[in-house]
Amino acid sequence: MNDLSNYRKSYEKSELLETNIPEDPINLFNRWFHEVEDFGRVDEVNAMTVSTIGLDGFPKSRVVLLKKFSEEGFIFYTNYNSEKGKAIEHNPHVCLSFFWPNSERQVIIKGIASKTSESVSDGYFDSRPDGSKLGAIVSNQSEVIPSRTFLEENLKALEKELEGKPIHRPKHWGGFLVTPIEVEFWQGRPNRLHDRIRYISQDDFSWKIERLSS
């Protein structure tokens, strides 16, 4: 057995106080996101974990890239026929989480996922490099395949077929918008007395703010 009980770190880089937070979580997320980005040493500050409840009843988490956020919510893109796509179609309750260790910060978002409009999905797909477009078309994401060679040969065939032609978004690929109903911000603090602030969506479109014990 690998004993990891001595893996310890003192969190001392910042604090999260009610006197210095906005009334809604998107503004705070925006502030934190750009502070982490400006601080540097994070390869992909928009990397997030998406957790879903699968068709088999088990939760599953995977890292994807956040592509847009606004007051409406958080958008990422995927193959709708993938394991995560099918899971979301079956149960749209999802969880997003960001962990930024260099800033000793974490954000956990509970929300409801829905497909973005076709125009939004088309707009993002058209902005991608051709290689990424072809990859989205050729890969039956999450399906069992005989080998990597099988995938690479299919890509070569598709490249030849579409050479010099426009590459259109396949209907099975597009965006999900996660509308938040609860957002928790975690700031590491000394002695494991971390700051945890939770925003809960209210019926009047305001947010209830609570402090949680660490």
TrEMBL record:
PANTHER family: PYRIDOXINE-5'-PHOSPHATE OXIDASE, PYRIDOXINE-5-PHOSPHATE OXIDASE. Belongs to the pyridoxamine 5'-phosphate oxidase family. One of its GO terms (biological process) is pyridoxine biosynthetic process. This is Pyridoxine/pyridoxamine 5'-phosphate oxidase. Catalyzes the oxidation of either pyridoxine 5'-phosphate (PNP) or pyridoxamine 5'-phosphate (PMP) into pyridoxal 5'-phosphate (PLP). Pathway: Cofactor metabolism; pyridoxal 5'-phosphate salvage; pyridoxal 5'-phosphate from pyridoxamine 5'-phosphate: step 1/1; Cofactor metabolism; pyridoxal 5'-phosphate salvage; pyridoxal 5'-phosphate from pyridoxine 5'-phosphate: step 1/1. Keywords: Flavoprotein, FMN, Oxidoreductase, Pyridoxine biosynthesis. InterPro entries: Pyridox_Oxase (IPR000659), Pyridox_Oxase_CS (IPR019740), Pyridox_Oxase_N (IPR011576), Pyridoxamine_oxidase_dimer_C (IPR019576), Split_barrel_FMN-bd (IPR012349). Pfam families: PNP_phzG_C (PF10590), PNPOx_N (PF01243). It comes from Flavobacterium shii.
